[in-house]
Amino acid sequence: MDSLIHSFLQTLSIPWIGLSSVGILSFLSATLIPFSSEAVFFGYLVKFPENVWALIGVATVGNSLGGAFNWGLGYFSKKTKNAFKKETNTAPKSRWINYLEKWGSKSLLFSWLPFLGDPLTVVAGWSHWRFWPCLIYMTIGKCLRYVAIAYFFTLSSH
């Protein structure tokens, strides 16, 4: 059993397999599943620092696609809810909702934040913010996070 686990881990350490794993895990961590893409990103960066730009690209794409999935979840959840029930909520909006509506898709620059970012992408879909600006701002924020992690890693390793 130990040799099976060891051979599986060796297979995952092959750079192209590792990158696809980073992409898949980055996608999953951007959904509402509690998981850290930063840990996987950092682990791959330690093992293959020469692949930093490919790593940033793959992690950013995976994480952004996960955010787009969340946006779709929010968007279609509201459509489904509205199909079954007329909107009669006249309660005043919270300060948080007012802030999000004021900044709109630009607030998705912060979609990388732990605990807040994933629900923020769902709220964007629920609020029917336009998809492409949301995806662009999401991608910028998530990419900057990975660039910062890689930058601080290279600083600490020299």
Highlighted features:
158 residues, single chain, 7 helices, mainly alpha
In short:
This protein has 158 residues and is mostly helical. The protein has one domain (2-84, 93-157).
Topology order in helix (H) and strand (E) letters? HHHHHHH
Q: Pairing-aware structural class of the strands and helices?
A: mainly alpha
| DSSP strand tally | 0
Helix proportion:
over 70%
Q: What does the largest sheet look like?
A: none
Cα distance spanning the termini: 39 Å
Task: Give the total of domains.
Answer: 1
Please tell me what the overall shape is.
elongated
Radius of gyration: 18 Å
- Residue-averaged pLDDT: 85
Strand percent estimate = under 5%
DSSP summary: helix tally: 7
List low-pLDDT spans: none
Q: How does this model look, in words?
A:
The protein is mainly α and 158 residues long. The chain has one domain. The chain is 74% helix and 0% strand. The chain contains 7 helices and no strands. It has helices at 2-12, 15-30, 37-47, 52-84, 95-103, 117-126, 131-157. The radius of gyration is 18 Å and the shape is elongated. The mean pLDDT is 85.
